[in-house]
Amino acid sequence: MSLVFGKSFFRVKYYFLLIILLYFGCTQVEQVTYSPQEIATAWADMTLYLTKHTPANSPTYASRALGYIGLTMYETVVNGYPEYKSLAGQLNGLSDLPLPNPDQTYSWILCLNAGQSAILKSLYNQTSDANKNKIDSLESVILASLKSRHEVGNIDASVDYGRKIATAIFEWSKKDGGHRGYLKNFDETYVHPEKPGSWKPPLYAQSFSHHPLHPHWGENRTFVQKNATIPIPEMIPYDTTPSSPYYQQFIQVYEKDKILTQAEKEAAIWWGDDPDDTFTPGGHSYYIATIALRAKNPPLIKCTETYARLGMALADAFINCWAWKYYHFSERPNTYIPKFIDKEWVSFWPDPPFPAFPSGHAIQASTAATILMDLYGNEFTFIDSAHVGRKRDELREVDFVARTFNTFWEVAEETANSRFYGGIHTPQDNDVGLKGGQVIAGNVNELVWKVH
What is the pTM for the complete model shown? Predict the structure, then answer.
């Protein structure tokens, strides 16, 4: 069955919860009753709101946050579903988590509610007080809506257990290498490798920094041990000879820039997901997962499994991608093309502040598609309205136009291609990214999620 969900879909009660909360406060909606699925996706909405509206965020740090947020959502409810397994003992360095009291009755959705509030405030400690108040208000709105459906005696125990799970996961997170990574986005002491074809700070860039973003991120602990042992992919060897495979990678970028269609320009700006303006590339994948959950309305446990799988896979994708980027420390077309092909050339889209190979957009989009395909199949027709309403890009004379897709893999391919259209990635950057994402997501999918 194929369903289309566009901008109007998000005006229904699912999205109503967060919209009313953000603009009018919790007292306006206390009498409304929400389903468990609506509560899970409301917390996803809040996660993306914070991702977009918290300063000094980055694609790397945001992906890490999504991993712990998704895992916390799953672990706060998993013990209420005997057919599902906790991931304690399966993840890298997470030996155990607090267990529920067998003599206590719990409201698992209240556990989730309290856990999401706690983990968001811990991971986004740097966000504004106004945003922290929004988190507290959402928790209060949901608690008020659920109180009439639960025995008073189990509310405190449920809230306490959810917070214990969040605290345990946050304490584990502190040792992964990325704790408070927003305080050290650019390392001024980092020595740039100097070699033919090495990355250079671009003149036409998304950042004023002359130092690349999070050069040590690839050393962080992965969620899944197998993702820490994936071999570093090979690059086409550097060469300036026009007939060489390396040169041909860049000539493809140069020639494509000459014939960009309006639709390709729209794709290029749609998938930019600059952290200064949007919820980052990983957040965009989280957003698409939320569209899928609202369309398919699976049981609560599968909603939480979806966010856990996706969040952890995205986090591991960025760790691997950054390890590979800084191993090769490779240049972008804005360095190579002006030097060897056309000295006047400038890419359609500005360079991000880090090395090129492989494409982070491609690897995270492939990771997300592989997770969602494993859970829901590939066929899914929907409209991505994430950036509808954004101001026209006057410099490039392009509007933000909603995208329609029929499969999850189409999203991955267009996301990767958008960086080629933008002139900031070569075909090999995208090809290796797409393949790498499949491997990383596959290792997350292979975790033991259910009792066999």
Answer: 0.94
